[in-house]
Structure formats: structure tokens, C-alpha cells
Inverse folding.
């Protein structure tokens, strides 16, 4: 008979950026952590957990991970959606953390053990102009990365997704402030420019480095098909988020016209958001994040479905998923046969301090470490020094002033 959950608290902290962490405690004194950070909607996720989930958890058996998942998913009645699923994810992660700590094993062992020795990672390189972009890619390669996402500026535009004009290779999209920054966007200018940029990056790095690019939900199916075709000579590892994927059927047209590998799914929160993309083999990589799509338990269902269709797991890993769920993602990567690649955008030094972790990066690969559970702790004294500050991802308008997808 396992112990019961006696406390469920939400820790809001902002070491460089905002994070929502769930902390569960058992009567035996075991602590489990989960992540429910939803970039720009942190307080809603925190309230959902604190006001509507925490009271339900007190007295439950922490060993019953699947039952608790079903209770929160089915029991909400208003099921799915990013806030609900982030909250379910946080509970799921905290329960896997507790189970690992009770067993004295890292979570990847509970998931069946390692099926590989290390988890391939990719990171970001960006610069407004091509020479600086080439330097940024070289710098990431010198850091050990074998896979790099390249984003550049576009002549005639003031702002472009994935790059700051003067950032020196770094990029953090969420800006502190009470309202989002408004950026401007012109897809035609982007489409005229980006194939030549990626061709130049490929020529510069040679054939070995894996190159990725993110179109960030901005294209129509026809534009996406054209871009995929135009990028074929650059031999991309993937082209990401070509169209807004509420419309899964849109990918049929894209797929018919290009062999550039496609990755989609960072904003998805359940298997229903990607089941058609997977079963119709319209994508090559599914990008669902452990913090946003129902935790380890639901990600395993999605990845098991994906495996039937040779679609690979490639979880979202921007700085806005906390080091807690990032670690969980690496446990899943190590133990999932159809894992492809893990995004590793990196963290502010302060975030590494607030969330001391057993996971590590070396030579282009990640490892979750051997600490029991998820292997990520929270320094609550330090966390309390960085209170939540409003921050938002930008929004985008076309040159005629109409809203478009950021
Ligand atoms: O692929 C990525 O990491 C990006 O699309 C980020 O998720 C987005 O900029 C919000 O942080
Ligand atoms: Mg993306």
C-alpha cells in the first residue's frame, strides 16, 4: 500500500522567464515536480492547478498514475485545451517523479529502460544578415551540436519570427510587459528570400550538419508546398510548422508536392490534434511537448501511434518549457524507439540554478541522468526571489494591418 498525497502546491517563478511548477508531497515525505508552463498564459494554468486540481489530489494514491490521468481528463468534462492539458501534464509528471523516487530509479527505467545511449539534440542559430547567421551556426557547432535550426532576417521587413535584429545569435520571443509586442509580416518577401539563405547555410556547413528551419504557422498550403520544394536542395532535417495545423487536411496538398521532411505539433495538446497527420503520414516528426500534451503518459500514446506510421517523436523544447518537463522529455527520448530529435533551446543561467537537474548535454546529445525520478529539483528559496512578471509572445499583422499568425 503506497502512501497518499498530502500536499499540492503551485510554484510560480521567473528566473529569466516565467515557469509554473506543481509540487506534490506524499505522507512519507516524497516530493514530485511537474511543469504546467503555458507561455503567456501562466496564471491561467496556475489557477487551474491551484483552484481546480490541487484539492482533488489530496488523499489520492500517487502510485495510480493512469487512473489519476483519466480522473482529471474525463472528470473535467470540458476536456482537452492547452490549459487543461498543461495541468494534467503537470500532475502526470509529478506522479512519475514520485514513482521513480519511491522505486529508486530514473523514470526512463520505469518506461522500459534505455533503447539508445543518448538523445540527439538540436538548437537554434539566428541572425538578421547571412554572414552573422553563418557565424552563429558555426558557434553552435563549436558547442557540440550536430543539428541546428537556422533563421534569418528578410529584406524589407522590420521583424521576422525567430530572429532579433541585434541579438548576436540568441533569440527569446516572449517579452516582459503588460501587452504583447505587435510585429509585421509579409509572406511573399519571406518566400523570395529564405531558400537562398538556407542554400548558403548548407554550402557553408557542408553535408553533415543537420539543418532545420521553422516557418512558424505562416503559410498557406500552396505556399508551403512551394517552399518545401524550393528547400529540397538544402537537404533539411525538417521544415517546421509550415501551415497552421488546426486544418490537418491542408498537409495533404503540401505532402504531394515535396519530399522535404515536415515537423508539426508544438501547439497540440492531445492525440486528437495529430491523429490524421500521423495516420495519413502527412508529417515525419510530431512535436508534442511533455508539458502541453498530457505528460509522459499521453505522449507515450501519441508516440506509439506515430511508430505504426514511421513518424518520429521530436518534442518541443523551447526555453518556455521548464527544466522539469525538459528532463521528462529526455527520459521519454531515451526510452522511445521512434524518437527522432529533442529541441534544446537552452536556459538562462538562473533557470539552471532554480531547477538543479541531473539531465546533461554533451557532444550534441542529451542524457536524463541516473537520479531517481525525473532528476530535477526546485530551489524554492531562490525561486521566491524571482516573482512572476507578465510577459507575452508577440502578435503579428500583415503589411495592410490585418492580423495573421505569429
Ligand atoms: O520551435 C520553437 O521552439 C518555437 O516555435 C517556439 O516554440 C516559439 O517561438 C514559442 O516560444
Ligand atoms: Mg517551432
Amino acid at each position: 500500500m503506497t502512501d497518499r498525497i498530502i500536499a499540492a502546491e503551485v510554484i510560480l517563478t521567473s528566473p529569466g522567464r516565467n515557469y509554473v511548477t506543481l509540487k506534490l508531497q506524499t505522507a512519507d515525505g516524497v516530493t514530485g515536480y511537474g511543469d504546467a508552463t503555458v507561455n503567456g498564459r501562466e496564471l491561467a494554468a496556475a489557477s487551474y492547478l491551484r483552484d481546480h486540481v490541487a484539492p482533488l489530489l489530496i488523499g489520492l494514491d500517487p502510485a495510480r498514475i493512469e487512473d489519476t490521468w483519466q480522473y482529471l481528463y474525463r472528470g473535467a468534462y470540458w476536456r482537452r485545451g492547452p490549459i487543461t492539458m498543461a495541468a494534467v501534464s503537470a500532475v502526470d509528471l509529478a506522479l512519475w517523479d514520485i514513482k521513480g523516487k519511491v522505486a529508486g530509479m530514473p523514470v526512463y527505467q520505469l518506461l522500459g529502460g534505455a533503447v539508445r545511449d543518448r538523445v540527439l539534440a538540436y538548437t537554434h542559430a539566428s541572425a538578421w544578415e547571412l554572414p552573422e547567421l553563418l557565424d552563429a551556426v558555426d558557434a553552435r557547432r563549436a558547442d557540440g551540436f550536430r543539428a541546428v535550426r537556422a533563421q534569418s532576417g528578410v529584406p524589407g521587413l522590420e521583424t521576422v519570427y525567430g530572429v532579433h535584429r541585434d541579438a548576436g545569435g540568441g533569440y527569446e520571443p516572449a517579452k516582459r510587459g503588460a501587452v504583447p509586442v505587435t510585429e509585421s509580416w509579409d509572406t511573399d518577401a519571406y518566400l523570395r528570400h529564405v531558400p537562398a539563405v538556407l542554400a548558403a547555410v548548407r554550402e557553408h556547413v557542408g553535408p553533415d550538419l543537420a539543418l532545420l528551419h521553422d516557418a512558424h504557422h505562416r503559410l498557406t498550403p500552396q505556399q508551403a508546398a512551394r517552399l518545401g520544394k524550393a528547400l529540397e536542395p538544402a537537404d533539411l532535417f525538417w521544415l517546421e510548422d509550415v501551415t497552421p495545423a488546426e486544418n490537418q487536411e491542408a498537409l495533404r496538398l503540401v505532402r504531394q508536392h515535396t519530399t522535404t521532411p515536415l515537423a508539426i505539433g508544438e501547439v497540440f495538446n492531445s492525440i486528437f490534434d495529430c491523429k490524421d497527420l500521423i495516420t495519413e503520414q502527412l508529417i515525419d516528426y510530431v512535436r508534442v511537448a511533455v508539458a502541453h500534451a498530457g505528460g509522459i503518459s499521453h505522449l507515450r500514446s501519441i508516440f506509439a501511434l506515430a511508430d505504426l506510421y514511421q513518424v518520429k517523436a521530436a518534442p518541443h523544447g523551447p526555453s518556455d518549457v521548464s527544466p522539469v518537463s525538459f528532463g521528462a522529455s529526455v527520459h521519454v527520448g531515451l526510452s522511445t524507439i521512434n524518437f527522432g530529435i529533442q529541441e534544446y533551446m537552452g536556459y538562462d543561467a538562473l533557470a539552471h540554478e532554480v531547477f538543479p537537474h541531473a539531465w546533461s548535454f554533451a557532444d550534441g546529445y542529451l542524457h536524463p541522468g541516473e537520479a531517481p525520478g525525473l532528476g530535477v529539483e526546485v530551489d524554492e528559496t531562490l525561486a521566491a526571489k524571482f516573482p512572476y512578471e507578465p510577459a507575452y509572445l508577440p502578435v503579428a499583422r500583415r503589411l495592410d494591418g490585418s492580423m495573421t499568425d505569429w
Remarks:
- The first strand starts at residue 5 and ends at 13.
